[in-house]
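The instructor's notes for this session suggest beginning with a concrete chain rather than abstract definitions. Hand out the sequence below and ask the class to guess, before any prediction is shown, which regions might be ordered.
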Amino acid sequence: MENLAYREICLLREVETSIKLLKKGMGDLQKISGSNDFRHAPILLLSSGYERLIKCLLCLALVDGNGEFKELPFEKGKGKGHDIDYLLRRLLSVCEQKNYSSKFPAAKADIDLLSKDKDLRKIISLLSDFAQGGRYYNLNMVLRGTSTYKDPDEGWDKIVNTIIQRREYLLKELHNGDSDYFYKEINRELIITLEKFARSLARLFTLADFGDFAKRASPLVFDYLMLMDNDLGTREY
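After discussion, reveal the predicted structure:
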């Protein structure tokens, strides 16, 4: 129990940092345009933000009976520290053990989103790969001629192409010279998925059985916690 109060303060700081990273990442994503294709900035910020937030939730969910934070699977060189996909699956497993999805309609919708939404799964795959080592893809290719991880630019393009396949008229707008509209709509769709992801995680602070400290930490995630469906994709970050 030694230094428990300070450890709790550090966890609160980490939650706050994760939300700031997500907001900054979404803000940089909104700036992507025909004249600004620097996608690495939002990918870097978002991957760090989601990784940190999920880890904080795991710390809260797996507190022992004495209020101590347990050693988690991503600690001590177990190779999963930056694998966002793995961390999320670990969190979903905890939610399943607590029968979270049956408690509220919103909880079921969130679990379905986190586990089944195809658009989100593609984004998580990109962020997870980037966090584990894909951020060094170009350097690995220079030094070794190969990379264990995928090219993040190609991953981004695949996600964008999925949106275009649903909304083919966007390409026509681009070809007609209206690149501002094209990128604005693409960015908006991505933001909506990312906001739903953040909201689903934020709700765990209050709706899941993660203890009183999780509820006390919930004001730090308020902006996503209280995000309504009709506000998705409308914020300027």
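Then share the key points. The first helix runs from residue 4 to 30. The mean pLDDT is 91.
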